[in-house]
Every structure is written in C-alpha cells, then in structure tokens.
Amino acid sequence: MTASNVAASARRHVLQRRIRWIVTATIVYNVIEAIVAITAGTLASSAALIGFGLDSTIEVLSAAAVAWQFTRRDPERWERGTLRVIAAAFFALAAYVSVSSILVLVVSVEVEHSSVGIAITALSVVIMPFLSFAERRAGRELGSATAIADSKQTLLCTYLSAAVLVGLVLNSLFGWWWADAIAGLIIAVFAVREGLEAWRGDACATSVGMLLEEDGDEAHEH
Fold first, then answer.
1. Per-residue pLDDT tens for 64-121?
2. How far is CA 191 from CA 45, 52, 156, in A?
3. Gap between the Cα atoms of 179 and 192, Å rounded
4. Cβ distance 70 to 19 under 8 Å?
5. pLDDT of residue 31
6. For labelling alongside 137, which of 56, 114, 128, 206 has CA 20 to 30 A away?
7. Burial (CB count <10 Å: 0-12, 13-18, 19+), residue 20
8. Which residues, 6 or more positions from 73, have their beta carbon under 8 angstroms from its beta carbon?
9. What own/partner pairs with CB < 8 Å and gap ≥ 24 does 16-20 have?
10. Cα separations (Å) of 29 from 9, 120, 178, 215?
11. Among 100, 91, 127, which Cα is nearest to 45's?
12. Is the CB of residue 47 less than 8 Å from the CB of residue 184?
C-alpha cells in the first residue's frame, strides 16, 4: 500500500468518526427537542408544533440509521438501505403534518400562545444549520450519499423550525391560528421532495463505493 493510499484511508476514518460524533449530537438534541415540542404542542393545540416534535423523532431515526451505517466495517455497502430509511422518514413526516394541518383548517382549531414552543423552535433555528453544515461538509469529502441526505433532513428541520416559529408568533401577535397549519403544509411539500431525492439516491454525492471502484480501475490500468 502506497503512502497516498494510507493517507486516504486515514482521512476516511477521521471523516467517518466525525460523522458519528455529529449524528450523536443530533440524536441527543432531537430527543430533548421532541419531548419539549410535543408537550408544548399538545398543551397549545398546535398541529405544527406537534408535527415539529414528531419531525425531531424522525430526525433521530434518520441520524441513528447513519450512525449505525458508520459503525459497520464497510459503510458504503449499506448506503442504499440507509438512504431508503431516510426517505421513509421524510414521507412519514409529510403524511402526518399534512393530515394534522388539514384537520386543523377544517375543524378550525384555535392555537393557544406557547412561549415554550417559540423558545424551542427559535433555538433550533440557531443550532440545526451548524449540525447540517458540518455533516454535509464531511459527507461530501467522504463521498457519502447517506450523510448528505441526513444533513438535508437536519436542514429541513431548520426550515420546519422557522416555519413553525413564524406561525406561532403570528398567532400570538395577531390571532392568526391558521398560520400554524399553513406552515405545516409548506413543510410537508419540502419533506416529500427530499424524500424522493433520498429514495432515488440523488444526494449530490458520489458514493464511497464508486470512488473505490474508480481507484481500483486506475490501479489496474497502471
């Protein structure tokens, strides 16, 4: 094995370890976020806030799938299966948020003010972009479609946080209870789109396996 191959292998291990740390931090934060958001959403009768909490549980599932993948000896072998898990998580989120938001609009359920809900969504708007950026950067360098797809899931959580935050603030200031449901429907559209991309494996990255195959082909040519 040449020095360049040793260096490349060492770098891959560093990136894999970094991704494991990032998804671990994502899981811990989202577990706390889910508990707080679902509780606050139930008390305030906020479909979007409850959906936001459920999104956090789906983000935990997505991050856990990636964490599991990168504990395997050959993470690239599990790329497609992990992408399918992430895609299913997106679709589940879209389905729940769509149904709950439509029911709120049909039944005209008024949403109560939630200071806790505003606080947790505002905090997520600040924290989630950093986690998403860090994972996407490591995923791109490593060539991991699953890490990039999971970073998109985290970024979607940021969009969801912002949308729910706007809905909660508008409701608190002007009594626009329907803004909460509209925010949920907008997020559902984003979730379906990202789910389809993950299912197709379209994560703007070349898989590790493809990179290794290219290296092997070049070695054979020489």
1. 877 777 776 776 676 777 778 778 878 887 887 788 778 778 876 667 788 898 999 9
2. 22, 12, 7
3. 20
4. yes
5. 92
6. 56
7. middle
8. none
9. 16/70, 16/75, 16/142, 18/134, 18/138, 19/66, 19/70, 19/135, 19/138, 19/139, 19/142, 19/144, 19/147, 20/67, 20/70, 20/71
10. 31, 11, 29, 38
11. 100
12. yes
pTM above 0.70, yes or no: no
Angle between helices 79-107 and 145-174 (to 10 degrees): 10
Mean pLDDT of the chain: 77
> For the residues 57-64, what does the mean pLDDT come to?
78
- Three-class SS state of 139: helix
SS3 112: coil
Task: Look at residue 72 and give its three-state secondary structure.
Answer: coil
According to the model, what pLDDT value does residue 59 have? Answer: 77
Which of 70, 71, 63, 69 lies closest to 89 in space, CA to CA? 63
Sequence letter at residue 110 = E
Look-up: residue for tokens 């590790």?
208
User: How much is the average pLDDT of 35-61?
Assistant: 82
